Every structure is written in C-alpha cells, then in structure tokens.
Amino acid sequence: MEPGSMFTAVTTAILATVLTTSAGASAPIAPAPAAAPPEVPIAVPIDIPITSRARFLMGARLVIEARGTAVDEAIGWAFDEVARLEAVLSNWRPDSEVSRLNDAAAAGPVTVTEDLYAAVDVALRWAEATDGAFDPTVEPRVRALGLRGPEGILPGAGAPPAAGTATPMPVGWRGVGLDPGRRTVRFAAAGMGLDFGGIGKGMALDAAARVLRAAGVDAALVDFAGQVLVFGRGPDAGGWTIGIADADDRTEAAVVIDLTAGSLSTSSNSERAVVSGGRRVGHILDPRTGEPVAWNGSVTVLADDATAADALSTALFVLGPARGTTWAEEHDVQVLYLERDPRGRLLRRGTGALLRGAALGAPVAVFGRGAKSAAVPPPQPTERPR
User: What domain range is 190 assigned to?
Assistant: First the structure.
C-alpha cells in the first residue's frame, strides 16, 4: 500500500479512538471529524456581518472572525474553551495539568483527565508517524536551553548554556507509556517531560472551531499566532485571504492564499529565539539531536484540521527543505518552504497548490479537503508500554 493511502485509510479509526477516549469531556482534544469536501463554499446569508474579536491565550493573540447567529456569545464560548485547554496543556504554567504530570510521571503511572490523555495519545501518534521529527518529549531540552520565558531564561533555571553543548537527556516518545483502561501516563526515566508547543495551538484551534460550529456559527476564521483554521463561506469571493509571512520580515506577506477550508500552520525560527553563546538560537528543537534547528527559513503546511497542520509544520521544519519535501510528496502533504538566499532572493520549495501559489506570485484558491491535503493521520493505535 502506498504511504499516502495507508495514512488515509486509518483516518476514521483514529478519530473514533480519540473521540471515544475523550467522551464526557466538555470538548475532547482530537481532530475534528472529517466532513464531505465542499466543492462550492456553503451558502450563508451574505448580509450578516462578520464579527471579529481577540483575546490573549496560551501566550499568543487568538483572533476569531465569525458569521452566524448569536455570534458574540459563540466567540466567547470558544475563547473560554481555549482558556480551559491552556490550564491542561501549557508548560508555561506551573499549575497546569501537564506541568503536574511532568513532575510525577517518572515515579509511576499518573491518572490524567480525558483531555490530557487524548492530547498525549494524539501527540505520540504524530511522533510515530513522523519517525520522531515531531516529538512532544523535548521538554527537558527546552528547559536546559532556557527557551521558555520572556528573556529566554526559564525562571529559576539560570542562563541558557552555550549552543552546541547538548548533554544526553531523556528525550524520546517511546519512553511514554499509556494505559487506556486506567487512563494513566507514565515516563520511563526520571527527567522526562511533555511539551505541547509543537501541537497544542492546533489542538486549541480545533476545539474552538467545534465550539463555534456547535453554537450555530456558519463561517469563521480562527487565527492563533500565525496558524489559521477556516470553515464556511468567507468574505473574499467565498474564501478567506491568508498571507504567509516572510520569514525575514513577519510584517510582510511573501505568499497569499485564498483558503476555503482547513488549516494553515507556519513554523519558523523568526520568533521566540534567544541569544546563547554569542549566537541566535531558535526555539524549534530537533528531538533526535537535542539541538535547535539551525535553518532560518519557514515552512507552511495545509491540513484538514489544525492539529495535523501544527504537528506537521513542526516536523517538516525539523526535516528541512530537501528531506521535508520528499517526505511530503510521499505522504500527499501540501507544504511550502520559504527562505532567502545571501542576495536576499526568495527561494521556494514544496508541493501542491501551496507551491503553485508561491510560484505565481498571486493569490491561489486552495480547498483544505479538495486538493491533496495534509490530512495525514498517525498510524493505527498500538499497545504502548505501561
């Protein structure tokens, strides 16, 4: 079976597993159930204005633009849901559930909420699907390099060590044991920890979109610090005009996409970098080496859901343009790599409509589910060590 076909064939099983795991939670963390791809955007009353509101959550600005009935109340509920998930998934908060898990799971199995268990399960499957290019267990290395905090220094941890001084640390997704029957998580070694920085905002976007849809919102754009998710008929000829930022100048759009469904996620080292050992150190780590990725471009991924887009943009940034493009082609993922050469010229590499749009230099219509999308679910669930 071809790789892309293999991944597509297990979508339903994975979604069913995650949703079942999260049954009973107010908003389970899982990719939104797949829907039939709308070849024509869903018709909604065009005389209903779009309402836009913003709130600072998970350390970033979350913007929701929505159209529908009782839209103000729906947006408020969506913000509240993301705030609730922040208390589950944020490593920046010592009182969050994942922080408490990181403190205790090496000593023995820890019973967690349905939300956190589903998040860990999905993250581990993405780690397996990308052969560790995405790995949520980079937490100990993030702490050691001081990549969290306003100054790039974790409070209480001291200044970050010089780059290139990686020491062996317990990083590796296979060291996380899950017991679905008891809903417990256990670490194989002391010092292990989970960091949802490469997937958590995608999970939050999917959760916010589910709340909006359930509340009767017909169309929305949800923008979370550079990652967007859209559904329904947008204001731009039925779509939503999205700019992909230039990695060297975040205020300028290097590529413009007319998105009609799905999620776009961009990863780069242009934000949250710190100065360590006399040079700039990016915040995206290669889990296999423990070192920050040195490449300074950006990668954008299109997926049917935001969780997939977030995890894949992280993994493909780690793989880099050459290996990442090959991986994306093998798995039917739409990806766009952007970087500047020494003379300042914009270089593009990628697959599908994202690359075509970048090459044309003009907006290109992209269906999140109509084209070859990044709906690459992880492999089938497997028994993990307990």
Answer: 3-29+54-150+170-366
**Tell me, what CATH number does 321's domain have?**
3.10.520.10
Give the helix/strand (H/E) hosting 141.
helix 139-144
Residue 374 lies in a domain: no
List, in sequence order, every residue forming a beta bridge with 242; answer none if it has no partner. 257
- Residues 6+ positions from 253 with CB-CB distance below 8 Å: 243, 244, 245, 246
Say how many C-beta atoms besides its own lie within 10 A of residue 46's C-beta. 10
Sign of CA dihedral 35, 37, 38, 41: positive
Q: Which amino acid is at 333?
A: V
CA distance 215 to 372: 30
The answer to whether 320 and 386 are in contact (CB under 8 A) is: no
Predicted local confidence at residue 232, as pLDDT: 94
Query: Nearest 10 degrees: CA dihedral of 251, 334, 326, 357?
Result: -60
Number of folded domains that form the chain: 1
Quote the CA–CA distance of 190 and 149 in Å, as a whole number: 23
- For 201, phi and psi rounded to 5 degrees? -65, -35
pLDDT tens by residue, 350-378: 998 788 766 655 555 555 542 233 334 44
Beta strand segments in 205-297, E? 217-224, 227-231, 240-246, 249-259, 262-268, 274-276, 279-281
Structure tokens, 96: 């969050």
Q: Do 258 and 238 contact (CB within 8 A), yes or no? A: no
- H helix or E strand, kind and range, residue 101: helix 97-104
Could you give the CA distance from residue 240 to residue 321 in angstroms, rounded to a whole number?
27
Token pair for 358: 């970048």
114 within some domain: yes
CA–CA dist 333, 223 (Å, integer): 21
Tell me what pLDDT residue 252 has. 74
pLDDT (tens digit, 9 = 90+) per residue, 317-335?
Answer: 999 999 999 999 999 999 9
In a domain, 80, yes or no: yes
In a domain, 41, yes or no: no
